[in-house]
Records
---
Amino acid sequence: MDEPLRTDVAVVGAGAAGLYAALVAAGEGARVTLVSRSPLAQTASYWAQGGIAAALAPDDSSAAHMADTIAAARACARESAVRVLCEESAARVHDLQGLGVQFDADRSGRLALGLEGGHSKRRIVHAGGAATGRRITRDLSALAATHERIRVLEPLAATSLVTHEGRCAGLVVRARHGAPLPIRARAVVVATGGMAALWERTTNPRGAVGAGLSLAGAAGAALADLEFMQFHPTALRARGTRDGFLVTEAVRGEGATLLDERGERFVDELAPRDEVALAIEAELERSGAPAVRLDMRGVDAERFPNIVAALAEVGIDPRRDLLPVAPAAHYTMGGIAADLDGRASLPGLYAVGECACTGLHGANRLASNSLAECFVFGRRAALAACAEPAGPASVPFADSEVAMRPGEATRAALWRHAGLRREPAGLRELACDPFPLARMIGAACLAREESRGAHWRSDHPATDPGLDGMHSVVAPGAEPRFERWD
């Protein structure tokens, strides 16, 4: 194996959270190594259509943002994490503006604020309409690529984390057919995104299979709330590669409606996502149809040019046609258990963005809190990582590789047994799946014997008040346990 590279902070993943964490750490004077499995600006964040939720309007407040987040989370949010996000999100929007990100403005030059499901105020900032992720990752990627204290390794994938004397001391990366390259670091920040592509039907790119969760779990770090996978209500039903294309909630915020086979509305389109997704699922079960219809003919389509372009590929014009949509796995609310500075249970390891679980989202994520989370907690983790002590003079590295690629049978099993509606027999089967992360998901779903937010058990349709504020924690080879955070 080659001689290890040495760095202060290693960041794994170059989406919004990883890029921002790398830039903040470098700004503090740290030597940063940024590891990206794909070329910069082609990560999952690139496809993010939602904006950043922040209390920026004169009639809004962080307290109102907190109340909406806690309500959406179904009595399972970590209140301290919610407070951090809601109090710091506006400042991070201003930071991004200072880095050159241009957000959409109204005719008076003020930030244009959108409305999405579960929000009581207009507080969503976008960049290029539904192209927010694309704009932000493009701008931050350019800054990271040219920063004198950031070394970018692309396209390389992390294959294992290295532990020594009870802490994370680095990682091993490699190109697809290359030799392993060890990296020594005072701290490792995992920002690899979520695991929604473990499910057969998903809005996510195929690579979003929970790689960071698998890496952290194999290294001994605790994972949390794996039963809470959010299903987005309005993913396109189409043949070919556009199946599962996300039609952002922002179009419903601008007046788009959901119609059943009779052409009638059947749900409050701006209710939290778990409610809307389950209502659509119930309608599909009742009618036997593969999709309901999203009517955005009354919406200014020019505000969503990437949606118009994607729909044109399958012969749909949203200014004229109804869109066939159905739920799909979308966002991982669980992840690597982390505190309010992103610290994992393994010293020296940090997690930010969708791969982390601070308890912020509880059982149901409020729309557009995810990008806000990337920047708020990305900054906090970067600052904490920079304060980590120097590691030992020598660290042993081994050429090991964590299993991170599920088979198609696993993806089908997760959709069948851990989809919108779950039954114990299927979950027990899933808990014996050959893929380690799928087994932990199955075990977490079995342990939560209630229905709450994104987790709906057919044998336990009621919410158990005794599990309010409780988070499931699981490690490889151990049974899940419940902890009350805060």
---
Amino acid sequence: MHHSPAARDGFQAVEALRQLVRLLHDSSRMAQGRTGISGAQLFVLRVLADHPGLSINDLAERTMTHQSSVSVVVSRLLARGLVGRQPSPDDRRRQLVTLTARGRALHRTSPAVVQERIVDAVRKLSPARRHGLAEGLRALAKALGVSRRGATMFFEDDKVPAGTVPAPSRRRRPASARGTRKSKAHA
């Protein structure tokens, strides 16, 4: 059976997406099983081990993730006692995330996660290939109606664990979303 080049390209694109999702899923399950934390949490832990004392924005850049998504993951790591926050020596208003002794111990016994390989591979693509990949994936997301809101890290939901507070976001909610919620006393 002969397929047109367009049909073959479509098949190969969907097949590559399946392979990547499977690789990410398997890596996340393996990380959870071996360390008790998600692949996304382990990825952030490993980045912090290689680059101690990063801000949330620095972590977002190094993981190629939206700041709010990294903040949620850091909140989970804080809740588990694997990371801590401390003021930057250069700017006391800026908080740096560091590994705790427990975080360093877990890192020493943790496996690499596929997110590290993906980020490294994307960085190594030529600028033209990286641009083409970004354009193609953005077009696919748009065709699927995916919102432009920052997505969570792979296989990590965006609910913050109880008892923790994520890093403050510098973005404000739109005016239409502020002040529209009634308090329980008035409900």
---
Amino acid sequence: MAEEKYMQTIAITNFGGSECLTSMHLPIPTPDQNEVLLRVQAAGVGLWDVKVRQGGATLPGQQFPLILGWESAGIIEQVGSNVTEWHVGDAVMSFTYQAGIGHYAEYVAVPANLVAAAPNSVDALHVAALPVNGLTAYQTLTEALALRAGETILITAASGTTGGFAVQLAARMRAHVIAVASAHNHAYLSELGASELIDYTQTDIVAAVHATHSEGIDAVLDCVGGKTAASCLETLRNGGRMVSIVDLERVKPRQGVKADIFYVRPDGKQLSELAHLVDTRQLSISLDSVFPLEKAQQAHQRLEGRHNRGKIVLNVQQ
């Protein structure tokens, strides 16, 4: 029997605060016939990881010790017997939402169909920032909202990672983008393609929208939830639609408008499309901060402070 090999990971043995994140040596996974084994270079950190850590996003079959992380950039180390489209040495990225697969680790085995070639114009740290937030923005705009050229869309938390991608993608779709963020992020959002800017700390969002769009707007992408989502519903024209990626708990149904919650799904083909946009300079990736793998606790604390502009990433192989 071959000797079992181990890897450095960040995992939890119980749910709770950031102090639950623990450095552990766990066995390197063996890819099945339809998987590839990645040597992880960098892993993205998102609020979904916080929910998993707190016990708010469990999956059937999930068990402790539980390695966190849904996304990473890395190099293919091994391919399953049925895998023909990928080869050892390929630089790739992946997003998975599946029990037993965690990306806060030196190695991760992922389904081959959820892998995409990494954009070659940016480093692995930037690549790891793309999968979950990039797909969330892409899927909400193209599928859930079916945004069309010439329409007006309001994006809340626009300077966050998903918001920043959404501003760029919506502008590329030739929509009129109203970005909601604090004033010190306005210049940044203008560069990303926002047409109008609202400082939510100084201005009522609904009043600001109706001041320039008296009949209301076509669409809202809400990245905040709660009272913000509830108020943004009032910016919509008759026939308008809103999607929240957080919650609709305080949103009261209103005749003539549509409001839905949206959950991103892994998609290797769409990831490839995003990589192309990055390499053709149609989509930029912003990093807020980078932490070594063993500093995952500090990365989560930074994220929970809700003041990051751009993505927080773990550098796995320094």
---
Amino acid sequence: MPCINLKGEMAKNGITIEAIAKLLGIHRNSAANKINGDSSFTIDEAITIQRSFFPKLTLRYLFEKESEDGSGNQ
């Protein structure tokens, strides 16, 4: 499942998939796959994104996966 909050915050702040990929040193497609939930971020990648782009937001909020009922609760 995609990281809905991360995607929303990226859109609000004008942060592109390319910027995430560059920060992490990975291909753009790999970053897109992680953001869209096709693969997972490592904890180090998540921390790097949070500290670099969203220091006022929590890791839990940014990387929360949407639950099946759509509530975000797990």
